[in-house]
Write a structure and sequence with these properties.
This protein is of the alpha+beta class and 209 residues long. Helix content is 35%, strand content 19%.
């Protein structure tokens, strides 16, 4: 998650478009070929991309160009009907258009669709803004940080004050254990990005001066 501040408003920018991921995951589950043993829809997350794979190649005579054009083909009609009743699917044949529109509005690259072996793979690229280093790192501290450590620093940049470990833990978008948080805080302290003050229950953390 990155953040951009314009005027007095803060805009949170996810690494990948939630709308696009929702549509692609739905499509992967509805159109998977479950007759292929040992294969199921899967999500793989890498440092520079996110991939969604669905087992089963496109039906005979149906091409990626047809899919992009909005031509609808439903492999698993029962699953599709359930998804529609749950409100997880809209009108058939409109998923690709929603993905493209969501990506354009929020400045994401349009995902890449391709057939790989016996699967259909969709590759997402992260929003470039989320790959930038936080402002505090542009002062010469160029150590490699994890995405979670960058999120911790972003919390301090927004709050601009002293925070307890409990405060930080509550503000994290993705829950982690308190032990993991303490390890991250001490790692940031070791490289000179955070300072620790107080002791015991009164312990607090702040950006290094």
């Amino acid at each position: 998650m990155a953040a951009k501040i314009q005027d007095i408003q803060r805009e949170n920018i996810p690494e990948y478009s939630p709308i696009a991921i929702r549509e692609v995951l739905t499509n992967a589950l509805v159109h998977a070929d479950y007759s292929i043993k040992g294969m199921n829809p899967r999500v793989a997350i890498y440092s520079d991309r996110l991939e969604v794979e669905s087992p089963g190649i496109l039906p005979f005579g149906f091409t990626l160009e047809d899919f992009i054009a909005g031509v609808s083909y439903v492999r698993n009609k029962v699953i599709a009907r359930v998804f529609r009743e749950l409100g997880l699917m809209e009108e058939w044949g409109t998923g690709y258009k929603r993905v493209v529109n969501a990506c354009k509005v929020h400045r994401y690259a349009v995902p890449e669709w391709e057939e790989v072996g016996t699967t259909v793979r969709v590759t997402f690229r992260p929003n470039p803004v989320t790959q930038e280093e936080p402002e505090v790192l542009r002062t010469g501290k160029s150590e490699k940080l994890t995405t979670r450590q960058k999120e911790i620093l972003a919390i301090f940049e927004e709050e601009a004050g002293e925070l307890s470990a409990k405060d930080i833990h509550q503000k994290l978008k993705n829950p982690i254990s308190e032990r993991t948080l303490r390890l991250d805080l001490h790692a940031l302290k070791e490289i000179g990005l955070l300072e620790k003050g107080g002791s015991g229950p009164s312990t607090y953390w702040q950006l290094a001066s």
